[in-house]
Amino acid sequence: MLPVGFTNESIEELAVQGWFYSIDKMTDAFYADAVYNVKALESLGMTFMGQYARFNEDTKADGTLSGIDGNVYGLAVNAQWGMVTLGVAYNEAKSDDGKWINNGLGGGPYYTSMEEWTIGWMEDEKAYQLQAIIDMKDAGVEGLSFTTLYGEFKSAPVNVKMIEWDIIATYEYDDALSADVSYASLNDKNDNQNSGSDAGYDRFLARISYRF
Q1: Kind of pairing, strands 44-57 and 27-41?
Q2: Which of 60, 65, 111, 147 has the most crowded CB, counting CB atoms within 10 A?
Q3: How big, in percent rounded to 5, are the helix, strand and coil portions of the chain?
Q4: Would you call 49 helix, strand, or coil by DSSP?
């Protein structure tokens, strides 16, 4: 794998980055995003984000093409007022017939990525996400936050529609110790994501992390 990247923060409140990854026998991927922060009012902060990714398929070890090929576009806006942040995000993946994009190296950098579901691995997928975050710092509990996410993912070529709800509680005791609890509920609206059967499920996770 060959990674090359750049970042630029020379303009106040604007951050831009770009990365190129050549993943052997899988794909060549280019990714770029921009984040702009603005103070709309004294008590209201806005964050505007845009992202783009391009995947070019590579030849696998068996001589066939990997199928990982296409473009990803994304937009997101967050508004923060006091201890509450509200956000909306949209992603669209465009690929030729029989091709798809993937999540890169990990869960994917996409704005609509949820605890379980992302836009990876399906043709011509569209997704949007709504989020609400409550930071309990102003209520006197430093490091504690609650997040609720709603995401909807659609792929017309394979007639798939997935809906996911996430509820997450995170507590950061200090720079080393943190804990989070999350619940994810997935609903396969067309009951055909898992080779023609219902792929919906519920997942609960509790985790404690300590960084040395």
Answers
A1: antiparallel
A2: 111
A3: 0, 65, 35
A4: strand
